[in-house]
Design goal:
Elements lengths: L12 E4 L5 H8 L4 E4 L4 H18 L3 H12 L8 E5 L3 H13 L3 E5 L2 H11 L5 E5 L7 H9 L9 E5 L4 H10 L3 E4 L4 H11 L7
Parallel strand pairs: 1-2, 3-4, 3-5, 5-6, 6-7
Helix pairs in contact: 5-6
Length: 207
């Protein structure tokens, strides 16, 4: 760097579990905006500091850029208050999907096979907004369950995303023929799943 040329540092927030000495704290404060010592309330403080900084940056953006950011945030509002029926016999998948969807603000119902799925829909079908249907399950598989669901006129517009361990073209075609609106192969990529759900969520209509 040439003499006299200034160096621009990005804002830094130090998040540490160490008890800093006065000398360490003074040194870090030369470069950082804030120092947060990990503790019971430290995650909330960290979120607060980052949010304040990002808000300051956002207010300095053009009106068009601010609008783009607002639109990007609003995309996740598609999940808020929605009721999703997760049909899967693998507890690991159930836990992962439930956790991810609840963080988005969705309400999650769980069924372990096709029979339980039909029972859940019979009880709460008019409130279910979308079904994630695993294919390979005991007692009643996903293909059979989707065909049974589509026999009911009240569930004709209920979006169903089929989830299967296979990614072959014939499997996708078989899922769609059984009544799925879309198809996703395992292992599930959450961002891909969320993208598919956003595609179908706006098309939902309460019966």
């Amino acid at each position: 760097m040439a003499s006299g040329e200034s160096r621009s540092f990005p804002p830094v927030i130090v998040y540490t579990g160490r008890n800093l000495t006065r000398a360490e704290e003074s040194e870090l404060m030369r470069y950082s905006r804030s120092i947060i010592i990990k503790g019971a309330r430290s995650p909330e403080r960290l979120l607060d500091e980052v949010t304040l900084f990002l808000h300051k940056v956002e207010t300095q953006l053009s009106t068009e850029r601010q609008k783009m950011l607002r639109n990007a945030r609003n995309r996740d509002k598609a999940f808020e208050g929605r009721r999703i029926l997760v049909v899967d016999d693998d507890m690991r998948n159930i836990f992962a999907l439930t956790s991810a969807l609840e963080q988005k603000g969705a309400d999650v119902e769980v069924a372990r096979n096709g029979i339980e799925a039909l029972d859940k829909l019979a009880k709460t079908g008019e409130q279910v907004d979308l079904v994630l249907m695993d294919i390979m399950m005991p007692e009643m598989d996903g293909y059979t369950a989707m065909r049974e669901i589509r026999k009911e006129a009240r569930w004709a517009k209920l979006p169903i995303i089929a989830v299967t361990a296979k990614a072959m073209k014939e499997d996708r075609e078989r899922c769609l023929a059984a009544g799925a609106n879309d198809y996703l192969a395992k292992p599930i990529e959450l961002e891909r799943l969320f993208s598919l759900m956003r595609v179908w969520m706006p098309k939902l209509e309460r019966i």
